[in-house]
Amino acid sequence: MRVNVENLTMRIERLKQQLRECPNIKDAPEQAKHIIQTLPQVLSDLENTIRSNNPAIFDQVNEALKKTEVMLTWAIGTVKGKITGDAIKAGKETDQSLPTHERLLNRITKFMLTKIDGPTYTSKIQEFAGNEAVKGDKVYMDPIGESEAFSQWILYDICFPGQDQRFIDLFGKEFSDELPDDERDLLKLRQDDRPSVYKVINIGDNAQGIYLVQDLLAPNNSFRIWDVSSSKTLNQGSIVLGRVIPYDSRSSDLYTFLGTLTGLPEKLWALLLPDIEKWKQQFFKGNPDATTVSFFRANHARLRRRIIEITGPGEPIPEIEISLADKKIAAEIHKFVMKRKKKGKSIESIVGSPHLMKYMDKFKPLMDKYGQSGMDYLTSKYEGFYDFAKFLENFASAIRDGKIKVP
Q1: How far apart are CA 139 and CA 154, in angstroms?
Q2: Measured between alpha carbons, how far is 76 from 276 in angstroms, rounded to an integer?
Q3: How many CB atoms lie within 10 A of CB 109?
Q4: Where are the chain's structural domains?
């Protein structure tokens, strides 16, 4: 994420807009009410700090904004949750003055509450965020990242026991014909969602807010994203967990991200990749005709728990320091493999290459020097290096199993 005056100012404006759009807090819980009442002054102080134009304090402002964003998201979510809950209990219809997305979400939430009980909901929180996410009657999840991702998972990814469709599809099947046109159109866009891990491959023109991402689980698929906000915070090469949906019904080649993105630093992605590859092999072995979207839905909660395991307290991400010289060696191996792939040859064809032993001799010292975490990093960064590592792994396995005879 980029930390500069433009980025910080944009985030403050977004928070001020959220405050302006916040519902009446008259009957809100006291803690939420206090946060919403005091934040205008906090934001004003942060704006004055930014005006000093001292880059040395930008990181401090960034950290303060992170905490502010979490607090405000929780407070407004608490206010809206209470209003929605009270309305549902009273049997009130959805407030037509609300924005389209809020009206639709309120209807879907009301529908979901008729299909799921408290213990089941709690068990799903634990499935998604781990057993420690629930303690007694309290839920411990980050209100910006985890809570929103959990809500999306519940609505868009899973089928509950006794159901053969996602909640979003069950709702559409039952109520689509009764919805106002704007809500019906939005529902169709959201039913056409595509959750995955995405990498920014062309950040484009920030003024337009259009950039290009690649689906890392299906690398042949890329999407033009139109999102001014994320275009100003993401960098070339940024990797995120997100849910792509069509931008609108008229644009056939434009998409946007639904909700908050979860950033995956490069070293975190390097640690996750071996798990993802193992899960893919298991999943597609039992579901050979499935799509990568189906794979992601089936493993979304598993992936979130793995991220928590790696990044949780007491388990910092290990630093991976690869020397420039060794990165060049990995890049050489990558180029060696990719040249053959571009010619339409399989990875196994390198057996016949007179250069194979040279690159094998270069590969082994890297493996001995950096261990599993370093190799995970290099295989995530260089496609050809990953193919070469898999080839050697399969080759060694075939020798052990007797499939390949050696003198």
Answers
A1: 16
A2: 35
A3: 19
A4: 5-137+152-188, 324-400
